[in-house]
Write a structure and sequence with these properties.
The chain has one domain (about 5-270): Double-stranded beta-helix, CATH 3.60.130. It is built from 6 helices and 17 strands. It has helices at about 30-40, 55-65, 130-135, 140-145, 155-160, 215-230; strands spanning about 5-10, 15-20, 45, 65, 75, 80-85, 110-120, 125-130, 150-155, 180-185, 190, 195-200, 205-210, 235, 245-250, 250-255, 265-270. The longest helix is centred in the C-terminal third of the chain and has 15 residues, at about 215-230. It is globular and about 50 Å long. The structure holds succinic acid (SIN).
Length: about 280
Amino acid sequence: MSYQNINVQALGAVGAQVSGVDLAQFDDATLGELRNAFARHSVLFFRDQKLTPEQHISLAERWGDINVNRFFTPVEGYPQIAQVLKEPEQKFNIGGGWHTDHSYDQIPALGSMLYALETPETGGDTLFAGTCAAYDTLSEGLRETLGNLRAVHSSRHVFGAAANRPKELADRLGNEELAEQDAVHPVVIQHPLSGRRSLYVNPGFTRRFDGWTEEESAPLLRYLYDHISRPEHTYRFRWQPGSLAFWDNRATWHFAVNDYHGQRRLMHRITLEGELID
Ligand code: SIN
């Protein structure tokens, strides 16, 4: 695919590096190119951006409606922006395991725009995995079996009282009484933008296959998780202040690596509303 206004460099099975765009101001033709690149690559990475919270919100609103997160502490004065912070003395980070956001909602969020303000000198990368590429590399037989399955997802064990969260996270995550979402989705979805098939289960929020027990589900889920997170389906993004990653929850997983104790990492995240994927 050719682009007139922007430069898009594919990074492998998932993701593309985009240059030649100032996310604070770009025209509608560029927006169209970004939409095409997003549908094709599932995560777009931008460097050297300078976004105020207002500009970050305007960028998200040009794409779609903002989903105000129920559980993350917002940036003061900006309820649309979730703060993703780890202080030097803190041990736990947010998102430190493979997951895809909001799969516990019947209409899962489209994705998030994560903008880096302060990054550690070493560590703090984010890993991404491509769930369409992972589907493509399964055998025909397993694809057919999975095509008949649905899976149950929940927020309760992660954001609810049952999560038994470390006290340290109390000022970064809240509203545990609102964690009452359960959703059932097909295990294989057709991606709404690309039309590709995508494996829609994840270790963070998927509990079991619909109609199966957790024990029965565990071995096949484990197989799929190991398969999706194989190196050839993943990309590791190294952040700098001013980097922005925009990922699609319906085609990717992500994992915030927690290897920078003693250093500060501060990000602003805006999440966008999605659509029914069943
Ligand atoms: C998240 O899971 O949304 C956080 C990702 C990150 O901080 O890299």
